[in-house]
Structure formats: structure tokens, C-alpha cells
């Protein structure tokens, strides 16, 4: 009879630990899901804040007055009497044959 009591206590203890472990295994899925939801929420908030900042900065750039831009000395010396736009170079391919009718 003395041996039955410790075994009963040990069995009860091991069953209790098993139930706690099962509870932890079942709740770990919920914990992982909660962490994923929190991470998604953080990324969403950061994305919204960046979009708002970008919109604000774009509006500020569009509304600020556009002053004369200083030209570089080399471009100013080469095109001193020409238009303020830089010269554009157009390349045409040599080996393209166009049929003339």
C-alpha cells in the first residue's frame, strides 16, 4: 500500500504536466499568429507614414518657387550665345535600311 500512493501521486503529476504541455503547444500557435499580426500592423503603419511623408514632400517641392538654376561654367562657356537648354545629340543607326518608295 505504501507503493501505491507515490505511484498515484506521480501519475497525477505526470498527467498534469502533459495537460500543461498540451496547453502550451496549442497556445503557441496563437502566440505565433499574434506575433505575425503585430508585425503586419507595424509594417502597415510604417508604409502609411512613408506615403504621407512622400506626399507632403512632393507638395512642398511643387509649391516652392523655382529660382534660376546656376549653369556650370563649362556649359556656359561653350553655349554662351545659345538657348538656356543644353544641346541634345541624336544618334541614328547606320545599318538600318529604310526602303524609300
From TrEMBL:
> Cross-referenced PROSITE patterns, in alphabetical order?
DCD
Mention one GO molecular function.
structural constituent of myelin sheath
Question: Mind telling me which residue stretches traverse the membrane in this protein?
Answer: 30-53
Q: Which InterPro entries match?
A: Dev_and_cell_death_domain, NCMAP
Q: Where is the composition biased (Polar residues)?
A: 73-91
A cellular-component GO term for this protein: Schmidt-Lanterman incisure
Q: Which domain of life is it from?
A: Eukaryota
Q: Which segments constitute the DCD domain? A: 5-101
Q: Which GO terms describe its biological process?
A: peripheral nervous system myelin formation; regulation of myelination
For this UniProt record, give its keywords in alphabetical order, as a comma-separated list.
Membrane, Transmembrane, Transmembrane helix
Q: Where is this region: Disordered?
A: 60-101
Is Transmembrane included in the keywords of this UniProt record? yes
**What protein does this entry describe?**
Non-compact myelin associated protein
Question: What is the source species?
Answer: Rhinolophus ferrumequinum
Amino acid at each position: 500500500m505504501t507503493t501505491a500512493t507515490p505511484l498515484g501521486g506521480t501519475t497525477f503529476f505526470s498527467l498534469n504536466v502533459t495537460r500543461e504541455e498540451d496547453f502550451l503547444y496549442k497556445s503557441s500557435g496563437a502566440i505565433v499568429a499574434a506575433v505575425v499580426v503585430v508585425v503586419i500592423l507595424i509594417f502597415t503603419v510604417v508604409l502609411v507614414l512613408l506615403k504621407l511623408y512622400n506626399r507632403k514632400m512632393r507638395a512642398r517641392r511643387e509649391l516652392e518657387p523655382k529660382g534660376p538654376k546656376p549653369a556650370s561654367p563649362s556649359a556656359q562657356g561653350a553655349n554662351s550665345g545659345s538657348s538656356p537648354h543644353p544641346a541634345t545629340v541624336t544618334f541614328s543607326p547606320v545599318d538600318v535600311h529604310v526602303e524609300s518608295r
